[in-house]
Design goal:
Blueprint lengths: L3 E5 L2 E5 L9 H16 L4 E5 L4 E3 L4 H6 L4 H16 L5 E5 L2 E3 L1 H8 L2 E5 L5 E2 L2 H4 L5 H10 L2 H8 L7 H7 L4 E3 L4 H9 L7 H11 L1 H8 L2
Parallel strand pairs: 2-3, 3-5, 4-6, 5-7, 6-8, 7-9
Antiparallel strand pairs: 1-2
């Protein structure tokens, strides 16, 4: 399913899809096109969400296995998306309605805030168990958003966090009931409407300069 765009007043709701929402090249193209649309429309906030079992399962490992010679270019594209969301010039929230694994969890981490479904779904960085070390950029992104305690607990263990556990550790900012996650995420952004995008974008680029540079210098 191609990512789709809808609106809650002036807040853009970017729906990633109903499947695993893995980062295929076509998926990356579509996400960036929607982000372009959102910026052009002068949105006052961005919520990303999904349907079904997953928020996003991250890297498209099947595509990578079939195109191993393009791994470096592919990873660079994924990291460029993470950097773009990290410094996006408006308030952003990830509405984590299902599982968020690996690079999918990193996409959620790149947002300003995260709301996760309280009763179902896992937030997980499985890299230690699947024997794929974090790149410098991915590690820098996670460590820019989490306390040292939360970073160690999530990055070195492969642990799967439910919503309440993730909130207790500060991995997500809030939880919500089924069917209310996207609305709760939008409500967190609503008081921030009207921030000047140029100023906010500049602040984010300054705040996260080291992480954004690590993500894009590949």
């Amino acid at each position: 399913m191609t990512p789709t765009l809808s609106w809650d007043d002036k807040i853009a709701i970017l729906h990633l899809g109903e499947g695993e929402n893995r980062f295929s090249p076509d998926f990356l193209d579509a996400i960036n096109e929607r982000l372009d649309d959102i910026e052009r429309a002068g949105a006052q906030g961005l919520v990303t969400t999904a349907g079904g079992k997953f928020y996003t399962n991250g890297l498209d490992l099947d595509w990578l296995a079939a195109h191993a010679e393009r791994t470096q270019t592919y990873v660079a594209r994924v990291q460029a998306l993470l950097a773009r969301v990290l410094t996006f010039p408006m308030p952003t929230a990830a509405a984590v309605t299902g599982h968020a694994f690996g690079a999918g969890a990193m996409l959620a981490m790149a947002h300003d805030v995260r709301v996760m479904r309280a009763d179902r779904g896992f937030f997980c960085f499985p890299e230690v168990d699947i024997r794929i070390p974090f790149t410098d950029g991915m590690a820098a992104l996670i460590q820019a958003k989490l306390t040292p305690r939360a970073a160690v607990a999530s990055m070195t263990t492969g642990r799967r966090f439910g919503g309440e556990e993730a909130a207790e550790l500060g991995i997500v900012d809030a939880t919500a009931a089924e069917g209310e996650v996207a609305a709760a995420a939008a409500d967190l952004l609503r008081p921030l409407g009207g921030k000047d995008p140029g100023t906010l974008g500049a602040i984010k680029r300054t705040m996260f300069r080291a992480a954004a540079r690590a993500l894009t210098d590949v």
